[in-house]
Design a protein that fits this description.
This protein is mainly alpha-helical. The protein has one domain. Helix content is 81%, strand content 0%. It contains 2 helices and no strands. It has helices spanning 7-28, 34-65. Helix 1 (7-28) runs antiparallel to helix 2. It is elongated and about 50 Å long. 1% of the residues are buried.
């Protein structure tokens, strides 16, 4: 089994899984209004956008300190 360690693919996959899991939970507990589901989708994107930003800042910092 080949594991893709590319950070971009990981983040996209992670966002999709988080959206699917959180919306499924919302449906089970009957929080299934359009506005509620939309908020969970936005939360998944915002959380991982912050994670991606931190990754690139760290990567840039490490690159600039090794020169």
């Amino acid at each position: 089994m080949k594991i893709d360690r590319n950070i971009d693919n990981y983040i996209i996959t992670h966002i999709n899984m988080l959206i699917n899991i959180s919306t499924a939970i919302c449906m089970q507990i009957e929080w299934n209004t359009d506005k509620t589901l939309e908020k969970f989708v936005y939360a998944a994107y915002l959380k991982d956008m912050a994670m991606k930003l931190l990754y690139y800042k760290k990567k840039h910092f490490l690159r600039s300190t090794t020169k």
